[in-house]
Structure formats: C-alpha cells, structure tokens
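So, can you check this one?
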Amino acid sequence: MHTPTSLHLKRALVSMFLLHTLLPHSATAETHLATATATHHTFTVQGHDFLMDGKPYQVLSGELHYTRIPRPYWRDRLQKAKAMGLNTVTTYAFWNVHEPHPGQYDFEGQNDLAEFLREAQQAGLNVILRPGPYVCAEWELGGYPSWLLKDRSLKLRSDDPAYQKAVKLWFAKLGQVVRPLLLKNGGPIIAVQVENEYGAFGDDPKYLENVKQDLIATGMGDSLLYTANPPQFLTRGSLPELPTVINFGTGDAQKSFATLDRLRPDGPRMSGEYWAGWFDKWGEEHHQTDGQKEASEFQWMIDQGYSVSLYMFHGGTSFGWMNGADSHTGHDYHPDTTSYDYDAPLDEAGNPRYKFELFRQAISSHTHVKPVALPRSTPLHNYPIKAGFRTASLWRNLPTPRESKTPLSFEDLDQNYGYVLYRTDLDAGDGGKLVLDGLHDYAQIYIDQQLVGTLDRRLDQTTLDLPHVDHAATLDILVENTGRVNYSKAILTERKGLTGDVTLAGKPFSDWEIYSFPMEDLSQLHFNEESCSGPCFLQTSMQVTRPHDTFLDTKDLHKGQLWMNGHNLGRFWEIGPQFTLYAPGCWMLRGANTLTLFELQATGDDKLNTTVRPIYGATKSTRELQ
C-alpha cells in the first residue's frame, strides 16, 4: 500500500521522467532538469572488457534499422530482439532520409529516430548508434544525401572544406535529436561509432580525427566512441586512442580475433558486425546461408567472452528508392534488391526463421538466463486484387521540361531519385551508333515514342545502333536511377542520369528538353480506362477485410516501382531474384486499397497477385568478397 506522500513523490518522479523523454531538448532549463533526475550510468572500457557502471558487460547485440521497418512495427521487432536474449541493438542514422534537401530536416513519422531509441529502451535494450556520416548499409549512396554531389568539386569522405561544412551542420542537427538519449542523460545509447569501415576506403587519420571532433562538438562524443573495420583494414581505419571492433562473416571469427589480438593487444574484444546472412543484387542469386554454422560460431565467440553484434538481426525492406549498389572496382555495378531480408533470424515480415531459435539457445546456454516470451508471429493473408488496370501513359503526363544545351544529371536538376526523360530532335537521315557516356543507370531509348532498345549499366552497356530515320523525329532517352553505389570509391562519382557526353555517329547533340519524374506525388496523374503499352502508370485496388501483412507477387510484371496507398513499397524487375514486394498490414485500410505501379514496359497483360510467402529465384549459400 502507498501512503499519500509516497504517491505524490512517485507521481512527481514520473512527471520529471516524462519531461526528460518527451519535451524538446533544445531548451536549456528543461535539459538540466531532465539530466538532474536521470540515473547516471557509465559505459567504459577496461582492458579487454566493456564496463557498465564499473561492472563487466558483454554486448549481445543485433542490428536493425528503423528506416527498414514500418514504424507501427518497431516495438514488435525490438521485443523480439529482447526475446532472443539480446541486451543491445545497433542502428545507423541515415543522413539522406533526415535531410533530403539542404537544410530541410525530417525527424517525424517513419524518420522519428528519437522515438525508435525510446522504444528500444522501453523494451529493455541498450543502443549502439552509428551516425556515419557514411554508413554503407546497402543503402542509397551509403546514407549520403545525393545533393552533396551537385557540387562536382566536393569530395566525400575527405577533408574537403565543403564536405566538412555539410557534415558539421548535419551532426549539429543530429546531436540535438540524440544527445538527450545518451546513457549519461538517462537514455539507452551506450556507444557511438566514428565513421564506418573507413579503412576499406582510405588511410587518412586526420579525416577520422575530424569526424571524432565533430561528434564531440555536437555532444554525441559524451559517450564511448569507437571505430569499426574489417580486420585487414584495422590499421588504416582506426584511431589509436579509441577502442576498435572488427567486422567479418561466417567462418572468419578465429582468424579475425587473432588479428585483433595482435594489432590491439590491450583493447576490448568485439565483432561490430557478424554477418549472419547476406544481401541480394538484381540479376544474381538469392542468399540462404547456414544458420547452424553461424549459430555455432556465434556460440564460440560469446563463450570466449567476446561481445558480438549480429548483422543483421532483422534486415527488413529498403522501401522506395533506398536500395544501394555494390561496386568492387569502381567500374562494375551491382544494384541491390528492395528486399533486405538478409536471411536474418527475423525474416522480412518480422517473423522468426529457424536461425532465431538457434541463436536464442546459444545465448541462453551462455548466460543461463531464461529468455522472455516471444511475441506472437505476424499473420500473413492473401487478398483479392481487381483484375485489369486504369492507366496513365507517361507520354500524356509529361511535366514542364527544362531546356539545356547539354544533358543534366539528377543532381543538376535537384532530383534525388526516380526517372528523367531526355528529349532531343533527329533530322531526316540521322542514325548510327548512339553512345551514352556515363549512363547511370538504366535507359530505354525511343524514336517517336517507339522503343528501339535498352542500355543497362549493370551489363556495361553504353552504345546502341540507332536505325536511320527517313523523316524528322524525336529521340527520347528515359533513364532510371536504380540505386547509387554505397561501397568503394565509386561513391565519389555517383551522379545519376546522363552524366557524360551523348553522341550519335560521333556527333554530340546540342539541344535538350529534360523532364523530371521524381514520383514523390502521383496525385496529379490522369488515369483512364484505356489500354496502355510502353512506360505507363497502372492502378488497381486490393480488397482487404482485415489488414494483415502480405506479399505482392510481381512475376507477371517487367520493371518498375509499386505504391500501396501512397507508400512506396519498392522496385520490381523480371530478372529477379526477388519476385515479391512486402506489403505491411499496418499500411493497409479496411476495404479498397489503392495499388499504383509505374511499369517501364507495360504490355496490357500485366498482372498482380498476393502470396503469403516471398518468392525468390535461384539461391546460393556463399557471400561475395568485399
């Protein structure tokens, strides 16, 4: 029983806690009040160990990304992380979703990073935050906003003044959001990473020191700072005064920790990313890796007393345009699929696969702690989709063009994602070899709106034999950004669209009309009941009696993008290996749900169905070398 005095005291403490967690933290008085009422915790390093409040703390973490999980499902995924036995989760902060245009910040709704961090704490989980500014993550341009590339002299991941200024402004804003949620302020953030795998990119300690100082200046350094690299790049990507962790995949634990022992004999022992799965790329195989082997190696690591963060615990979905692309040499190009399932312990829909129980048992046998109950699985249902589509031809929905003497890139047009149509004139007799120098990334070429060929950067295609025309005609080149490279030095030159010269029979064109299709708002499209072929918007409805997750079966589509009730679910492409798009029930309505597609090569026979399981093409069990 509580006395009136104890009840008043308890209510006062609760009110102070709510002030700390919910009110804006830019107000100095409120911040001091919240800090004063928070329990002061510490997270430090001593020898090989992490210490929480002076006591050894073994980090058992799993990576998951708030941007890849529908916000209504954040709590479910975090509770499942706790149920697997994890005590920590790891996430990046994605600059490009929070600052889509210079100085325009978005930390609301799906991008409410602070709320994600609070929900992690409410689930009983600590957080390792990886703010970049570069994050890789198989995410568009490694998390950089593409507008940075508009300045062709700016150099990412360098001491270039223009780049450094942009990073400082971004970190200043991010610091305002996350600083109140640091451990010392009563929040869940126990550690903050300095950059990300920098040793795989460069060898400039001054650059890393600048990032560290920026984090300190914005308050994010009021936490344990550390670096992370694959073992072979550890000496290039670390700072001697900061602890470092190592990233590697299945089968590499013993040799990787041996390298860490040799290079950092006195530091903590942690795998910052243990790759327990792998990601997929368009036109290649789907990855299904050996969960038994992964769990066994994970067990060995934690039994040694090492800390580990599983990458990924739950991959989720790179909704919209946010998939990245691989490039190992700077010349090859491998765009990633929308699905980021990663063959992780939780599948794309957030349900445990067999790996989940294997890791859960490994943790339980090591900690001798009975895991908390697992939340029930998310049900999946099939729903009827209305046959046929209302249509809107791209050709009938052209926006006002911009005129230019030369082709302009997406960045020149202040356009981040989507498509750009480049139009110019052909004279009678024109034809021959068409060269698109620096095509980024996929183009369909038309004469008088009739398709004459496609060029794909994936296949290193830049030339097309254009038939000679016997009359004046229109040449259209429709270019898709299929995902900016997120890895290697190729990020430095990842402008999109027609980024170089365009010539026909050796001669450049001198006049262009350029049409932007960022496809951020489809409400102005004019749909009708006519059939449509070529580049078309298609619209139909899905009838839902009770919203549950489903997968949209795209096997009978060619290439394009799909929206459900205005939510951009991602890309489809007949080359696979992904043949479904995850459709979360939390984004559905009871009754009719609008499905809108942009199909690059509509035929009139396009079909869309639902399925309760994802559909993949050929599979492989090994990951590619980075």
The first strand starts at residue 43 and ends at 46. The chain is about 20% helix and 25% strand. Residues 27 and 33 are 10 Å apart (CA to CA).
